[in-house]
Amino acid sequence: MKLPEIDLEELKRMKEQNFRERLEFIDLYAEWLKKTSNKEWSSQQKKLME
Questions:
Q1: What is the enclosing helix (H) or strand (E) of 35?
Q2: DSSP state of 46
Q3: CB-side neighbour CA atoms (13 Å) of 46
Q4: pTM: predicted TM-score of the whole model, two decimal places
Q5: Tens digits of per-residue pLDDT, 26-40?
Q6: 6 in helix, strand or coil?
Q7: Over the stretch 3-27, which tens digit does the pLDDT of each residue have?
Q8: Model pLDDT, residue 25
Q9: Is 37 within 8 Å of 45 (Cβ atoms)?
């Protein structure tokens, strides 16, 4: 059985891109939390937990 060819450089680029996207999301979410009322924020969290 022949194993598939894996481009390690491509995987490295994908990992770095994923990491940057996660950091951007964290920054956006933190900004949203700062400007959103506690009542709205907590109702959003409640919907996630249900």
A1: helix 8-35
A2: H
A3: 6
A4: 0.66
A5: 999 999 989 989 888
A6: coil
A7: 888 899 999 999 999 999 999 999 9
A8: 96
A9: no
- Measured CA to CA, the distance from residue 41 to residue 23 in angstroms comes to 20
The values of phi and psi at residue 5, to 5°, are: -75, 135
Structure tokens at 44: 């959003």
First to last CA, the chain: 46
Instruction: Note the residue count of the chain.
Output: 50
Half-sphere exposure in the Cβ direction for 10 (13 Å, CA):
3
Q: What is the mean pLDDT of residues 37-50?
A: 84
Structure tokens at 41: 């924020």
More confident residue, 48 or 9: 9
